[in-house]
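As a warm-up, study this chain.
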Amino acid sequence: MGTTKTHIFSNRHNELARIAKVMAHPARVAILEYISRQENCICTDLVEEIGLAQPTISQHLNEIKKIGLLDGTFEGKNLCYCINQKRWAEVQNLISSFFLNINQNCC
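Now compare it with the structure written out below.
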């Protein structure tokens, strides 16, 4: 497979692509929905709620963290996650702007 040549695209294009890639997995969408409904979320809660193995959940959490949508804090030995509200607003604005600025000239 060839290189993606991301350097020829704008930072906005690359950022949208990174976000879309993370959001393209249903487990990550479910994880974000679950965390958004909690005050705190411990990873074992996610295992029970989502139904995937702990290592799989951790991999998905890492992918979500890479785009900055999660904040994590340790409470004892447990890592608790919450939505990074500032980053969430940035992502919402970026995606909304993309959809609002697409010219719909096709039939």
